[in-house]
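Example 3.2
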Amino acid sequence: MKRIALLWHVVKGDARVLWHALRQPGRPVWLVPATALLALYALDPFNIAMPVAGVVDDGIIVPLVLHLIVRCLPAHLRQPRPRQARA
């Protein structure tokens, strides 16, 4: 259970960094197509045909590719955005 919680923490952090990088005007050209392909892979209809294999596959491949995309970002985009204070 601790490993799943750690994986979720890493994926959540990578998703935040990716979301921030996608909104920047100086993002790499390859970032939008790579993110779109990853989203299509995660939502592909093969998961419906074989639900168990699809969930296991998405639970392994999608977080790894997400982390790889974040690792390939330039250093200035990999920095997590500071959280805004709530009023």
